[in-house]
Amino acid sequence: MKLTGILEKREKLPDFDDYADNYESLVKDNIKASGFHPCYFDEHKIRTLVSDFGTTPRDKTVRFLNFGCGIGKSARYIYKYLPQSETISVDISKESIERAKKRNKDIPNVTYQHFNHVSELKYDQPFDIIFAANVFHHVPDELRLPILEHLRTLLSPDGYLYIFEHNPFNPLTKAAFNTCEFDQGCKMIPARDMCENIRKAGFKKIDTNYIVFFPKPLSVFIPYERYLNWLPIGAQYYIKAN
Fold first, then answer.
1. How far is residue 229's CA from residue 213's CA, in Å, rounded to a whole number?
2. Could you give the domains of the chain?
3. Element spanning 96, H or E
4. Who wins on pLDDT, 72 or 140?
5. Is 180 helix (H, G, I), strand (E, B) or coil?
6. 3-state class of 65 per DSSP?
7. 30: pLDDT confidence band, cut at 50, 70 and 90?
8. Is the dihedral angle over the CA atoms 76, 50, 117, 19 positive or is it negative?
9. What whole-number distance in Å separates Cα of residue 192 and Cα of residue 17?
10. What is the mean pLDDT of the chain?
């Protein structure tokens, strides 16, 4: 979602320093057809991830890398669903990192880091979870593979990479994406293309699931969404890989 500073073709893509102050209002306006507040989707992703990741003993620290954290909208939910997590949240937007720090000053065990190039991300310990939400459609095709290759080096042998992206085959998602100010110049990534990049980066086990099928007026059906994760018309998809 927020990786323009990592790119050489910066002039063709949005600079998220310019959107740090009004990012939330732009998102809210862009997804109003869904009937949901943006935080619904932020929480949905983390709840889905934690459910997929499985039960972790409360006394076991979970090393969590929030890659492309933006203004920190996920931090509260990471702590809510994984209170034993030790999170490092990184982004190339300095303004977004500063907003994230202020927004989540009461959330423990979170470290924020600005970076200019993915090669700067080096840590003493590997991560159990690497999370990237709506990040990669802002990355040009030729840079996705090297980024994924580097992220693989940061993951523990038993850890998982979780990538969430917009589904270009959902008509409502496509309409919202095409009118989103900070998505101008970007293209949505079909799940099969994202999987191919992940495979080329050296990941062996790759699983795709679709999420978010019903708008708020049809929320009575939301409990049944878990039975539809195979159906490629969800508003978004996520890929789990290790």
1. 9
2. 4-241 (3.40.50.150)
3. helix 94-103
4. 72
5. coil
6. strand
7. low
8. negative
9. 31
10. 87
